[in-house]
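Lecture notes, unit on binding sites. The following record was shown on slide 14. It pairs a sequence with 2-oxoglutaric acid.
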Amino acid sequence: MDTENIIDRLLELFPAAEKSELLEVLVACDGSVDQTTKLLEEQFGKVQQASFEDNSQKSLSFSCNHIEKHTVKALDASKRGIKREFSQISDGEVNLPHQTTLKQYGRNIGQMKLCKRPGKAVTLYTKEEVEKNLPDLVFVRDFLTKELASKLLSALVSKRAAFTHNKFYIAGQKCQSKHYTAIFRDLDASDTEKFIYRDSGKKNVQKFFTEMKLCAYAVEDKVNEVLSKRKPKSSYQIRKGWKANLCVSNLFQQEKQDLDWHSDKLTDIGPLPTIASISLGATRIFRVRKITTARNGGDSTIFNIPLPHNTLLVMLPGTQEKFKHCVPSVDGCLLDLHPVVGKVRYSLTFRMIRNELLSGRPKCPKCGSSMVLKRMFKRSETRGYYFWLCGSQYSGYKCRGFYYGKFDKINVPGEGLYTNRQSEATRWIGNSE
Ligand SMILES: O=C(O)CCC(=O)C(=O)O
Ligand SMILES: [Fe+2]
């Protein structure tokens, strides 16, 4: 039975679940349908036994690799399902004014059916709601002066040529993002000049322009103020002097362009990073949910956060480790147009490239390629360990070169940030993970 069939069968057992969610749990359980079923039962209640036929049950314990081959197909299928839903619910609706009331937001978010399960999707409109439900997020409306926000938006519009689709590999298959991205670096301030941001691929890296630099200063001040008031989660996170020296800017030109569930890559920004983003243009929804583990009972509540023009959203240390986020398509249900750019939305996501990571990172012990930094979360025995994995897989090859991450001496110049020994490895586990 291939992955798509298994997902279909699981969907019959757990009709309230999303296909993409079933796939995620199946992958997290290394393809074991038994374990997947148990985990899902904790969340959705017990199902009748023998729902999977006996003979297929035996052949259902297969390796993660097997899933990977089918993942793209299954994800596509699950997206097709979601698309169908969107087109059904968005028929014949919505002509929104520029200024949308909270009530209207609620109505439109309801129409978008961002989550199938009643009670499992929560929409957070205000600073108080966001920060109470998600204490590692900071939400500030009208963050920049009106004038700077407008100038920044116009400058981005004039740089349209810098924005291209992201190209990447999933399970050896070349894929392309629906939205557009451009990479900007604060080259003046940086002593990491030679360094090309890994995510940029063959992208042209642009220099911060004047308005972006002003925005980066404001963001740095805010982030450092917030970090100084919080208890650090570890000794190896940035505690002060956070710099917005990299900006990954996203362009969503129309409602259909989305950004799939992900957590941001740690390779250049390190463990427990802070990422701060400014939204400009049309209001789009930012969705956040915990990464599902057995210990959090498969908690998959989805938080919808509408991000109006000139809103700052900071993801503090721990957010990339514990949560996934995405910007869903809002086909036919745009929440709020912008008076100048209409349905177009830009996000400017500021990050800090850490010099320590540039000097202390390993090369793949098997093939010499550069390596990517990740964190284990699938199995409770190893959850929270950081590890370096050969990066060649992202260009379609499969080398499994591996080290554990070791960050206890990240601030000591010349220290390698890797080890072969689990006993020396750095591990971080969040509450209720
Ligand atoms: O557009 C947004 O608000 C989110 C962008 C994002 O998640 C990213 O650039 O990694
Ligand atoms: Fe992201």
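Take-home: The pocket of fe (ii) ion (ligand 2) is lined by residues 262, 264, 325 (CB under 6 Å).
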